Amino acid sequence: MSAARGGRRVLDGIDLSLADGEVTALLGPSGSGKSSLLRLLNRLADPDEGTVRFHGEDVRGLDPLDLRRRAVLVPQLPAPLPGTVAENLSFGPRLAGRDVPEVVRCLARSGLGDEYAERDASRLSVGEGQRVMLARALALEPEALLLDEPTSALDDDAREGIERTLGEIGLPMVLVTHDRAQAARLAGRIVEIEKGRLA
Amino acid sequence: MSVQLSLGELALSLVLVAVAVAVSLWRRADLEKDLGLAVLRSFLQLTAVGYVIQAIFDSDSLLLVVALLAVMVGVGTWTAQRRARSVPHATFPILIALSLAAASTLGVVLALGVFEATPRYLVPVGGIVIGNAMTAAAVALNRLADEVHAQAPRLEATLALGATSRQAAAPLVTQSLRSGMITLIDQTKTTGIVAFPGIMTGMLLAGADPVDAVRLQLVILWTLLGSVSLSALLALSLGYRGFFTDAHQLRELPEV
Ligand SMILES: Nc1ncnc2c1ncn2[C@@H]1O[C@H](COP(=O)(O)OP(=O)(O)OP(=O)(O)O)[C@@H](O)[C@H]1O
Ligand SMILES: [Mg+2]
Q1: How far apart are CA A81 and CA A122, in angstroms?
Q2: In which domain, by residue range, is A143 found?
Q3: What's the distance, CA B238 to chain centroid?
Q4: What values do phi and psi take at A5, rounded to 5?
Q5: How far apart are the first and last CA of chain A?
Q6: What is the CATH number of the domain that holds A172?
């Protein structure tokens, strides 16, 4: 598939299939189109050419809201909603009409203590914010994760904690990263992208 | 009660325009041409409108009143959508907002018997209602566009959690609604202290009893609060959709 942003083609002839249960690392220089590709997978945007399929089905035939709850995106930069961390974690499940998630457990899996639950989500460091983003995604109990550089602002200890969690939950994932070693540690498959094309 | 001004007396007030021209020339503000155009246009437009209103008053036809108000809604829609350029597909929401805000507020004041259903009331009150509704819709939609630009990442993050575009936009719509309404609310709060409102001033000049002038002014201000809130709400409730696709995606925003 191909896609344009701001009138420029940023993805060009991408042909990729991701096996169920597999962790795929997406590696490439800044501006190569990694985030743009993730946006197509949960239908925050549609490609100009080509199709995205989820379990073999054209995503344009699926309910986009349902798709986004099943394949949850963890954004590159923290994007907290107004309110506490706990409210951020409950937001998605509440919209889906589900029970309030186990906030403390979701936080713990992102390496955050339960004292974070009542913190104001807009007053966190970038690294804390990144972990809240992961916890917020996990609160939706997704079938797959789309991770956009989830550890880029973390120290080694925190990064290792996240990597352990990602290994344990065993979900299929697309992991965008700059860190080749991390890709090797976590991913069964490494895909390289450069200037919008698969290398 | 009436004030009479001859054309000669009218021309004398151009002295003050000359002051404005002098200021512009002295400080090289380069506004002389605009000033000339403004004077010419105000004269021609108001004179034309004066004749139209005179004709409508003479005919005493409600159908003509409705036609005139419809033209005002049309011109108001065009003006507001030009001001709200950065809002995609704004024309229809603004048209609905102005029409419904005008129709419902005029309907209510007529039904309550505040005004008689005669051209003498309907034309000026309708004009004020539509003018204020237009400003409120344009201000509210512009604010919405600014908010969407500023908060695009948060909007997309909200959509990514399974929110509909309506749910994602709701906080921004509330902010924009406040923007659309706050000017008139502030004006209403300070009225009579900071500035004399136009209706009252006009009535006093025309020789009306101050108590009557004040009461009419209050009716108008309170009516406007209703129509302005309806207009902003309708414009936003329909207008936010222009920023999203049917698949709850934030559209790529045009450069501003
Ligand atoms: N909102 C936008 N409007 C227009 N162009 C954009 C927008 N976002 C990204 N682009 C362009 O699309 C291209 C790909 O951007 P993308 O964000 O996908 O890169 P990336 O690989 O994720 O980079 P990074 O590692 O820096 O996050 C870049 O050339 C970028 O300038
Ligand atoms: Mg990126």
Answers
A1: 7
A2: 3-198
A3: 18
A4: -135, 140
A5: 15
A6: 3.40.50.300
Q: How many Å is the Cα radius of gyration of chain A?
A: 16
Q: What is the pLDDT of residues A86-144, one digit of tens each?
A: 999 999 999 999 998 899 999 999 999 999 999 999 999 999 999 999 999 999 999 99
Q: Residues 48..107 of A with a Cβ closer than 8 Å to B: which?
A: 60, 64-66, 68-69, 72-73, 75, 77, 79-82, 91-92, 95-96
Q: Do the chains contact at B249 and A73, CB–CB below 8 Å?
A: no
pTM: 0.90
Cα–Cα distance, A111 to A124 (Å, whole number): 14
Tens of pLDDT, residue by residue over B139-178, are: 999 999 999 999 999 999 999 999 999 999 999 999 999 9
Local structure of residue A25 (DSSP, 8 states): E
Q: Is A174 in contact with A41 (CB distance < 8 Å)?
A: yes
Give the ipTM of the model, two decimals please: 0.94
Whether A30 lines ligand 1, by a CB cut-off of 6 Å, is: yes
H or E segment and range at residue A176: strand A173-177
By CB neighbour count within 10 A (0-12 exposed, 13-18 middle, 19+ buried), where does B186 fall? Answer: exposed
> For residue B247, what is the nearest residue in chain A, using CA coordinates?
A64
Instruction: For residue B1, name the pLDDT band (cuts at 50, 70, 90).
Output: very low
B162/A68 touch (CB, cutoff 8 Å), yes or no: yes
Residue A133 near residue A78, CB atoms below 8 Å:
yes
Residue with tokens 């191909």: A2
Distance from CA of B166 to the nearest CA of A (A): 12
Is A65 within 8 Å of B164 (Cβ atoms)? yes
Q: How far is CA A40 from CA A34, A36, A136, B41, B153, in A?
A: 10, 7, 20, 53, 15
Counted domains in chain A: 1
CA distances from A186 to A28, A151, A163 (A): 16, 13, 7
Distances (CA, A) of B177 to A43, B16, B238: 29, 38, 13
Q: Write out the DSSP string of B178-242.
A: HHHHHHHHHHHHHBTTTB--HHHHHHHHTT--HHHHHHHHHHHHHHHHHHHHHHHHHHHHHHGGG
Give which of A84, A108, A99 is closest to A162, Cα–Cα.
A108
Instruction: Provide the shortest C-alpha distance from residue B30 to chain A (in Å).
Output: 37
Amino acid (1-letter code) at residue A165: T
